[in-house]
Amino acid sequence: MITVDLKNLYPFISGEKLCALEPEVRAAHKRLEQKAGPGAEFTGWLDAPVSYDREEFRRIKAAAAKIRMNSKALVVIGIGGSYLGARAALELLRSPNYNLKQKDTPLIFFAGNTLSTDAVRELFTFLEGEDFSVNIISKSGGTTEPAIAFSLFRDLLERKYGPLAKERIYVTTDREKGALRKLAEEEGWESFVIPGDVGGRYSALTAVGLLPMAAAGIDVDAVLAGAGAARLEYGRKSMENPVWQYVSARNALYRAGKRMELLAYYEPSCRFFAEWWKQLFGESEGKDGRGLFPASVEYTADLHSMGQYVQDGERLMFETVLFVQNPRGSLAVTGKNDRSLSYLDGMLLSEVNRQAMRATALAHVDGGVPNLLLSVPELSDEVFGRLVFFFELSCGISGYLLGVNPFNQPGVEAYKQNMFALLGKPGYETKRAELNRRLSDSIVSQGKNERSF
Ligand code: PA5
Asked: Is 408 left (phi over 0), alpha (psi -120 to 50) or beta?
């Protein structure tokens, strides 16, 4: 279902070199499955597609049906792993223009993923005249961005619906821990669980992603079935396994000096899937001074911008192309209005896209950019589940191969601590004084630097 084509890797990495990694990949995969590696307490996602709580799954579908019935809009509040999976699914399986074309399902807006005043105000203005519900998603229950957004949208709901507002709040958080769980219990809001052994960026196939997906009319049974099938298929311990092929290729390229993996896609609906992928790999592998930098490009649009760098700039990167073989519909090019297009007359636009992909791969290979091709037959609910599991498993194995813990994210704390201090959070007084001193010093030193240049 997901195929990996490595022929445009071989000019750079020999088949023997790749095969030589087999014992390490096997060991990493085993460590992951046997829960014997670092961060093993966060590997519950490995079994989630089959061991999920059936009763909760039924409640998720019931809540989605209620939202569809009583709300014109659903505001999904969350950030990082509590945001990107749902948005990736919505755009990939419905459309980046979902809110313009949906009919029987609610408009879906994402909030709490920035600190932008304009973004919140715009949504506020829109929602004032509409019936809406809110799904607040936070595993820790205390992340600043979603906490601020939830507080604002809760206020709006309560002003609009009074005591009935509680019927429109859906909480997705840890089973026991965190401020949000406590609040949900106190207020009697309907709530769903992010399992303790599933970290944020591995949680797309739990209630985190499933409730917004179900509200948008996505077939969540099919999504989980796809992930379940992938779990079986990619559990195979062999170089025939597409996960092993992808993992070995990217690791061999890293060892050969590549420092950046560009996920290239040719369908705009994959944009947020690429954002989800970037978080998954960036947060999982980028630590201890190691890791490929994950970036993404949307082709063919970016061939007219970033394409120059990819072809001809620093030779830092390789490309992983995520290609969808069959679009949902078909459209033929017409040459009748433009003679310069007459050679394309009658050709399917999807064929033009496919040839653009093939042409680009060869050009980039000639420019020194290895190219891995990952193809899926189409973008269906089932394929989405498969893709999520494929990349999660690849990421877990890759992290162990790299020698890092792919399930923690110590690096994201640094900015948070500084932000709390600067915002005057109690307990951060000493840090605040130190940061303010550094910030005022840096203005002076900037001046000095300018002079020394
Ligand atoms: O992968 C992760 O753990 C993070 O990206 C989190 O998902 C993100 O920081 C949001 O955290 P929370 O769900 O606790 O609000």
From this structure: beta
- For ligand 1, atom 2, the nearest C-alpha belongs to 200
Structure tokens at 34: 């046997």
7: Cβ contacts below 8 Å, ≥ 6 apart: none
416 an active-site residue?
Answer: yes
Q: What is the CA radius of gyration of the chain?
A: 24
Q: Closest ligand 1 atom, CA of 194? A: 13
Give the tokens for residue 293: 């930098």
Ligand 1 probe mutation, 76, 143, 281, most atoms within 8 A of CB: 143
Each residue's pLDDT tens digit, 78-134: 999 999 999 999 999 999 999 999 999 999 999 999 999 999 999 999 998 899 999
Q: What is the position in ligand 1's atom list of the atom closest to the CA of 79?
A: 10
Sheet holding 132-137, edge to edge: 107-111, 73-77, 132-137, 169-174, 190-194
> Could you give all domains of the chain from N- to C-terminal order, each with its CATH number?
3-32+237-380 (3.40.50.10490), 44-218 (3.40.50.10490)
Ligand 1 pocket test: which of 41, 76, 79, 145 has the largest number of ligand atoms within 8 Å of its C-beta? 79
Report strand pairing: 3-5 vs 371-376.
antiparallel
363: pLDDT strictly greater than 50: yes
Spacing, Cα 92 to ligand 1 middle (Å): 22
29 assigned to active site? no
- For 219-274, the pLDDT digits (tens) are 999 999 999 999 999 999 999 999 999 999 999 999 999 999 999 999 999 999 99
For the whole prediction, is pTM greater than 0.70? yes
Check: CB of residue 323 under 8 Å from CB of residue 373: yes
On the question of pLDDT at 165 being above 90, the answer is yes
Rounded distance from Cα 150 to ligand 1 centre (Å)? 15
Is 364 annotated in the active site?
Answer: no
Phi, psi of 317 (to 5 degrees): -120, 165
Structure tokens of 412? 């994201």
Residue 337, CA distances (Å) to 333, 347, 348 in order:
10, 15, 16
Nearest to 76 by CA among 214, 199, 229, 250: 214
199 lines ligand 1 (CB under 6 A): yes
